[in-house]
Amino acid sequence: MWFSWYRGKVTEVLADENKVDVFFVDYGDSEYLSCSELLPMPAVLRRLPFQAIECSCLDIEPVDIQWNDDVCDKFYDLYYNQNFHAQVSRLNDVNYVTYALYL
Question: Considering the chain, what percentage of its residues have pLDDT values greater than 70?
Fold first, then answer.
């Protein structure tokens, strides 16, 4: 049996369910996993910089306080696996990047 391992950071612990929320530091997505699915990360892998960069799109904001699921699903359907050209437009004091994206 073949297993794939990914670098992740535990962001939440659900002790009563024996699960954790893991942020995959090289991909930018998260998933709830059973504690039995985790292994300690070797030190050599912890020294590598994370490949996922938290960012936002320039001048795109939800109409309401937050994005609703339908809008997020539509955005995903339209743009998942698309190639973008990104231009950094802002970098704030905590290194949060805002990009202008072009198809």
Answer: 87
